[in-house]
């Protein structure tokens, strides 16, 4: 697969983009209302990205902020149960606002609510990822938020910065855009220090960089610069670059679509999302089983294609969907490894059959690939 450029300050070379919108951007004023004009301008930017072939995923805060006003809770610090009630009220209002803004550009959205467990538990992670991937394939923009209504303190992200990074990691995004009420990472607090200097590019999160990230105050949101650096760490580890961008102005994405030089603080990884993921697979210690393939499948893999069920001869060991397995030739030679889309039990049933037979055999329509090429690495 072609290695993507990740060293420019533009969205032009990105294929898949996750955009995180903070509460203070979408909700404004003492009344806690949606900033409709701003949201319309953001929707125009998103429509432009779609027209030039980009895949977009949105992670938006704002549900609690919108619900607080409706419940007359705006002037107090909320308990967890009050946050949950405010989120229940605010979620529908938030989704309606996005639907109204994006339908003008004939763009459909779908709400996806996640908790920390959805990104930590393997089966739930895979289900969430497949749902988001399917929405993207159907040209629907996923609108993601933390499921504050059911999350407890123990299973909360606590802020959507880290949630956005996890989503970027989950979907293999090229770029994570953090739209914020700050212009980027500064050497010190620019509100207190006139000599503070914005950092344009970061290639490694060093102790010095961490010292710059004193938690910034935001009246509506729960994230600050500390959580944004944590998000950067997660994104970069997955091969995804990240930019912290001032988002208060209308059409906040226009500058980085045009690659304007002095816009935001950019964080660059050492590799792209695919190679980073493959390095993780190649370095995995816990291998759950083996899949034996025929010569035709071996040749196909060497050409860079995915492993299909028709090329599987045998299954060894017990493993679940999403486990890493070794790929073995019929002569017993280890060819590589990858993330298997089927359990050992199901794979035993469909081995040797063509992909269009899978639904008939298993009773459900699974993935066409046993191991997708993006989640497969061959031995040198």
Task: List descriptors.
five-stranded mixed sheet, 2 domains, eight-stranded mixed sheet, Carbamate kinase, 380 residues, 17 strands, alpha/beta, Archaeosine Trna-guanine Transglycosylase, Chain: A, domain 4
Can you give a write-up of this model?
This protein is of the alpha/beta class and 380 residues long. The protein folds into two domains: 16-273, Acetylglutamate kinase-like (Carbamate kinase); 283-378, Archaeosine Trna-guanine Transglycosylase, Chain: A, domain 4 (Roll). It is built from 14 helices and 17 strands. The protein has helices at residues 23-26, 36-51, 63-70, 80-102, 116-120, 122-137, 160-171, 207-212, 225-237, 254-257, 273-282, 295-302, 344-350, 358-362, and strands at 16-21, 27-28, 33-34, 55-60, 108-114, 140-146, 175-180, 201-202, 241-246, 265-267, 289-293, 307-308, 312-316, 324-329, 334-339, 369-371, 376-378. Strands 5-6-4-1-7-9-10-8 form an eight-stranded mixed sheet, with helices on both faces. Strands 13-11-14-15-17 form a five-stranded mixed sheet, sandwiched between helices. Strand 2 and strand 3 form a beta hairpin. Helix 2 crosses helix 4, helix 3 (63-70) packs across helix 4 (80-102) and helix 7 runs parallel beside helix 9. The longest helix is centred in the first third of the chain and has 23 residues, at 80-102. The protein starts with 15 loop residues before the first strand and ends with a strand. Residues 1-5 and 215-222 have low confidence and may be disordered.
